[in-house]
Amino acid sequence: MPVRMISRRREPRRVTIKLIDGSMIKGQVNLYHEEMTMNRVSDLFLRVKEPFIVVFGTTINRKKDRAIIVNKQNILWVLPEEE
Fold this sequence. Notes:
By secondary structure, the protein is mostly beta strands. The chain has a single domain (12-80), classed as Roll (SH3 type barrels), CATH 2.30.30.100. It is built from 1 helix and 5 strands, in the order E-E-H-E-E-E. The strands form 2 sheets. A 3-stranded antiparallel β-sheet has the order 2-1-5, with no helix packed on it. A two-stranded antiparallel sheet has the order 3-4. Strand 3 (52-60) and strand 4 form a beta hairpin. The radius of gyration is 13 Å and the shape is globular.
């Protein structure tokens, strides 16, 4: 079985995400991807085939700096925040 190294490199971008149930998530997504260069948040949704994304730096139930894994099929829209 081949061993794959997992990179901890980050290219974070702040986003607001609205889910189909009306929930809003504010946090960051990582644009760094081993196999391709991504410059825009839309690349994460259009070019990466994995069905889930990780949103980190969120606040969930008053717990700060949490990570949440979101199924892309549950997302209505994503608003990238200005740098």
